[in-house]
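tool=predict chain=A
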Amino acid sequence: MSNDAGNPFDRGHRALYRRIGTVAGIALAAAAAIAVWRNPAIADSLGRAARNPDWPALALLAASCLATQALTSAVFWILMRRHGAVGILEMNELVAASTLGNYVPLQAGSIGRMAYHKAVHGIPVRTSLVVILQAMAATAVATCAVGAAALLARGGGAPWWTAAAVPFVWLPLAIDRGWRPFALVMAIRSAEVLAWALHAWAAFRLSGWPVPAETAVGAALVASAANLVPFVGNGLGIREWAVALAAPVLGGYERDAGLAAELTGRAIDVAVALPLGMLAIAALVRRARAIVPPDR
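tool=predict ok
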C-alpha cells in the first residue's frame, strides 16, 4: 500500500476535496440566488438595474476583472521567474487558464499550472506549490495592511485616501536588491486588494444598490479573505455569503443586497474569464507543443 494513502495532501485526496469544494460552492451560490429571488425589494432593484444597466459601472467592473488578472499574473511572474524562464505574457495566459479551470470540479486551475511549469520549464511541483503559498501569504498581509489603513481612515482621523496609499508604502524597500521582490509583490498585492474595492463598488452600483467608497473597501477585504479558502475555486459561494454576512459590520447595505451585488460581480467575472481562459488555453497548448518534445 502506498505511504500516501493516509496523507490528506496527496493527489487523490486533493482531487476529492476539490470536487467537494466545488459542489459546496455551487450550492452556496445557488442558495444566494434563491435568497435574492425571495426578497421582493432586492429582486425588484436588481431587475430594474438589469433592464436599465449602469454602463459606466459595468465597464468599471469588467476593467477591474482585467486588472486583478494582470496584477495576479505580475505577482506570480515575480515569484516564479527566479526558478525558471517564465515570460510575463505566458504567466498571464497561465493565470487566465487557471482562473477558468478553478470553476471546474477537476484538478484544473493551480494544479494544471504546476503541471505546466514542470513539463515546460522543468520547475519542480514542490517549488510551484511554495510560490502559490507565498502568493497567498502576500494576499493575507496586503489585506491586513489595507484593512488597517481603512480603519485609520474611518475612525482614526486619517485622510480618506489612506487605504489607496498602501501600495506605495512598500516601494522604499525596493531600493535594496534583496528586498526588491518582496516589496514589489506586496505593492502589487495591495493594489490588487484596491482593485477588488473597485470591483465591489461597481458590482453594488450595477446591481442597483450603490454603496460609499469605504463600504466597498470593506467588502473588498472580506472578498479577498474569502478567495483564500482552499479547495473552493475562486471563492465560489464563499465570497457571496461572506460579503453578505458582513453587512452589519460594514454598513451601507443589507444582507440580500450584498448577495445580489456579489452575484452580479460573479456573473461579470465568469463572462470575462471564459473568453480569456479559452484563448489562454489555446495559446498554452501551442507553447507546450513548440517546447516539449512529442515523446517527452
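DSSP finds twelve helices and no strands in the chain. Residues 1-9 have pLDDT under 50 and may be disordered.
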